[in-house]
Design brief:
By secondary structure, the protein is mainly beta. Helix content is 12%, strand content 37%. It is built from one helix and 13 strands.
Length: 241
C-alpha cells in the first residue's frame, strides 16, 4: 500500500472517529437536562377563562465543580385554549443557587426581591398563544456547600396576581462528587454537601425553612412547598414589570 493511500485511509478513520465523538458528545449534552418537569408547581390565583399557564424545569442539571457555573432551561407554557395576553415569568434563586442572567430578561432590583431570595429576573411576555411555550436560558451558579432552590412564578404583567408558581423547588444530590469535573443535581432533591459526617445542611438565614409575609408582600413556604408569591399589599418601589 502506497504512503499516499495509507495517509488517506488514516485521515478517513480520524474523521470518522471525530464525527462519532461529536455525535456522542451532542447526545450526552442533550440528555444532561433530562425531561422537563413541573414538579413543585401549583395554581395560586385563578387565571382568565381558557388560560392555563404552567412552567417546567429540567429534571437534571450539572454544576462545574471549579467555576460553580450551571445552565438551566426555564420554560413557561400556556396549556389553555385561549391566548394569555400580557404576562411575565420570574426566575428567582434561593440559598446556594444564584441566578446570574436570564436571556432576554431584566434583573429585579434588590429592593424588589422577595424575602429570602438572593437574585431574580423578570421576563415580560406580550402574549403566549394557546398551546404554545417559551423557553429561557438561565445562567446561574450553585454553591455545592449549601442547599439551592429556584422559583418560577407566572404573573400578570403588573405582578398583582400570580397564576402559577413552581417552587421554591430544590436541585441537589445526596451523593456529591467533589473530585469529578462536574456534579449532577436532580430536581426536587435537597442537596447534601460533600464532607465526612456533614449531615446538617447549612442555613442561609433564620427564615430558611419558613418565609413569613414580608414588607414586599411576598409569601413563600420555602421547604419544597409552593406558597403565594405576591400578596395584594406590595412594598413601594417594587418592580411592576
Amino acid at each position: 500500500m502506497s504512503s499516499r493511500h495509507t495517509a488517506a485511509v488514516v485521515g478517513s478513520l480520524v474523521m470518522a472517529s471525530f464525527s462519532a465523538v461529536m455525535i456522542l458528545s451532542g447526545t450526552a449534552g442533550a440528555e444532561d437536562e433530562g425531561p422537563a418537569s413541573s414538579k413543585g408547581g401549583k395554581v395560586v390565583d385563578a387565571a382568565p377563562a381558557g388560560v392555563k399557564p404552567t412552567t417546567a424545569l429540567p429534571g437534571k442539571i450539572s454544576v462545574d465543580n471549579g467555576s460553580k457555573k450551571t445552565a438551566i432551561t426555564a420554560t413557561v407554557k400556556n396549556e389553555g385554549s385561549k391566548d394569555s395576553g400580557k404576562i411575565r415569568l420570574l426566575v428567582v434563586g434561593f440559598d446556594g443557587l444564584v441566578v446570574k442572567n436570564v436571556e432576554g430578561c431584566s434583573a429585579i432590583p434588590e429592593k424588589g426581591l422577595p424575602e429570602g431570595s438572593n437574585s431574580g429576573f423578570a421576563c415580560p411576555i406580550d402574549n403566549l398563544p394557546a398551546g404554545k411555550s417559551k423557553s429561557y436560558a438561565v445562567a446561574a451558579t450553585f454553591d455545592l456547600g449549601k442547599t439551592g432552590k429556584i422559583c418560577l412564578p407566572v404573573q400578570t404583567s403588573d405582578g398583582k396576581k400570580t397564576f402559577w408558581q413552581q417552587g421554591p423547588v430544590p436541585f441537589g444530590t445526596s451523593n456529591p462528587s467533589p473530585d469529578a469535573p462536574a456534579t449532577p443535581l436532580l430536581l426536587g432533591t435537597d442537596n447534601e454537601p460533600a464532607g465526612p459526617g456533614d449531615k446538617e445542611l447549612p442555613k442561609t438565614g433564620p427564615a430558611r425553612d419558613l418565609l413569613p409575609l414580608g414588607a414586599a408582600g411576598a409569601s413563600l413556604v420555602a421547604a419544597g412547598v409552593a406558597g403565594m408569591w405576591w400578596s395584594r399589599r406590595r412594598r413601594p418601589g417594587a418592580q411592576e414589570g
